[in-house]
Amino acid sequence: MTNDDSGRLGKPVMLSSPRTGEPRGFICCEWWCMGYWLSNGSLNQCVGSSPQGRDLGLFSSFARPSVLPRSRLVKLAWPIVVRFAKGMRHVDPSQLPEPPRAKLVKVNSDVLVVGGGLAGLATAMELSKLGLKIALVDGNGELGGRLIHVEGELGVKVSDYTSKVKDELGDQALSGVVFDGFLEDAAVGHSLDGSRLFQFNYRVIVVATGVREVPLVFPGNYKVPMYTGLTYLKLAKDGLVKGEPIVYGTDEWGIAVAKSLVKAGLTPLIMDHAIQPRTGRPSDLSGLRAIMGAYISETEVEGGRFRLRYQVPEGPKRFSEGEATGDALVTTVRVPAIELLAQLGAELVYDIVLGGIVPRHNWGGGVTGLSNVYVVGEASGLIPISTIPIQARAVAYSIAATYGLVKPEEADQAVAKLREALVTSNPAALDAFNRLERGLHDVGYFQEPNVPEVPQWVSDLYFLDKADEQLICFCEDVTLGDLLRVTREFTGLRGVKVTVLHDEVPKYRELKMPRMEYIKRATGLGTGACQGKLCMVTANLMLARLTQRKPGEFGLFRQRFPLNPMPMGTLGDAE
What is the pLDDT of residue 262? Predict the structure, then answer.
């Protein structure tokens, strides 16, 4: 996928595996991955397969983690590599091209808001009204986030917020600027073109990083052209895609994407493995073709179209079967973006209602255990989009109360309005927020549950015999089968059991699950260009479900600086 001179997306192409050269059917044009798939420009997945990838295909049988785990390969080959490197003829530094000179820009504020979607914009506006100096940073070239692409479908007009924030904040509203995280004691970011390095100075940081659409996992998921909802919307509006896409996901965002595609002249089919829309309102599917309760069991590609075979559970070991055909599979499955919060050391816990792994926080957005960090919007958990501006006000007033700009009672009133909004729109989210704040029975201890079901993904439980056909990490070709094998190696298990018998429970509980950091090192999971954004949470929740453990027992792998791909010249040559 490329951009032309006008900034429009180019014709979509199937990605290729950098390991084997085989087609990989996932296309994502988020700002943090487009054009950055690999640092070597001659091996750019975004423009299709490369000569290097085709050559690697000759060794594809040995390149997969399941054949020779990376940890063993490194152990065996490292001495040879070191001897080879020492004997190489090294290039004189004077022969290297001059790196780009980046201008260092210092941004000072009382509050730094990371994220320019609805939550970030609304919070910045509320804080600015209360007299605080605000800086807002967003990696997209334009403010507004993903919701600006479905205006009119969700009852929230994001464009009103973008214009107001630009007027209010001026040059403190930074779009096209990536927040890279923390380098030693500095908060650092860079412009997308690499010409500027930013150093942020602030007293409070508000994380409004929103959600991330992730690939679906099912047998043969690498064969079909799979797009994120945001990418496919952009392509549809530019007239680059036509036909009958299959949209997977029935929350507010998924339904809004499907309806927007209908307006663009396409005829989408919407699917989900939930038996009713995740919005809780069957009427939301009115006017849409829909298949509910479907688990994808098999794929078959025929020319430019594909066929999905699916099963619908009807009882113990009883299924009805069906087929659906389409031109593209559009995933609107979303998880909260938690990389920045993980780097800050936030306590991250599992909650099925809030979309998976989320930070513990109070009703005012304060992150548990961190004194100057707040979270707002869907980064705090998947909540009704209509309540996000109300939550933004509650967070802003909570911050202002700590500076004496408003009375504590005013902050309490703002929080009370958020509670009222959730009572009518999503009582389950109300209970979830209470659990995050107060813990178990109001004692502060959070009881993380086992994963009763994978809340967003299609299949893992019903099709374990096809685990090697279910790709988890599209960057590094790591399958569900690879994850299960590595888990067995670390624990000494002979196999993974979905049901543990009563007399096996004590012994089973004594098993110590491997941390995700070790699984990453053994398989390469999350070491590709997306840095785990598309696979880390998926892998954690799937392993937790299949081994009947708590997600916290696997944890997340370490989030290192930079959180997003960054030109080395920008970091190393800032004036």
Answer: 94
pLDDT at 151 (0 to 100):
85
Instruction: Please report how many Cα atoms fall inside a 13 Å half-sphere around the Cα of residue 469, on the Cβ side.
Output: 16
431: β partners:
none
Q: How many whole angstroms separate alpha carbon 278 and alpha carbon 354?
A: 12
Look at residues 363, 345, 365 and name the one whose alpha carbon lies nearest to residue 115. 365
Q: Is the dihedral of CA 276, 279, 282, 284 positive or negative?
A: negative
Cβ–Cβ under 8 Å, residues 466 and 299 = no
**HSE (CB half, 13 Å, CA atoms) of 141?**
10
The answer, yes or no, to whether the previous bond of 93 is cis (omega within 30 of 0) is no
Residue of 485, 504, 500 lying closest to 543 (CA atoms): 485
Phi then psi for residue 187, to 5 deg, are: -90, 120
Q: What is the pTM of this model?
A: 0.87
Structure tokens at 403: 């500076």
d(C-alpha 536, C-alpha 355), whole Å: 14
Tokens standing for residue 411: 């902050």
Task: Tell me the C-alpha distance between 24 and 226, whole Å.
Answer: 9
Peptide bond into 408 cis (omega under 30): no
* Residue ranges in the chain modelled with pLDDT below 50: 1-7, 35-58
Q: Are strands 348-351 and 356-359 parallel, antiparallel or unpaired?
A: antiparallel
Cβ pair 573, 100 in contact under 8 A: yes
Distances (CA, A) of 37 to 13, 53, 97, 432: 14, 13, 22, 36
| Helix, strand or coil, per DSSP, at residue 200 | strand
What the block records as the tokens of 304 is 């430019």
CB 232 within 8 A of CB 331: no
Q: Strand 226-228's sheet: what is its strand order?
A: 26-27, 226-228, 329-331, 246-248, 269-272, 289-292
Q: pLDDT digits over 287-332, tens only?
A: 999 999 999 999 998 877 899 999 988 877 788 999 999 999 999 9
Which pLDDT score is estimated for 35? 43
pLDDT at 63: 56
3-state secondary structure 450-490: CCCCCCCCCCCCCCHHHHHHCEEECCCCEEHHHHHHHHHHH
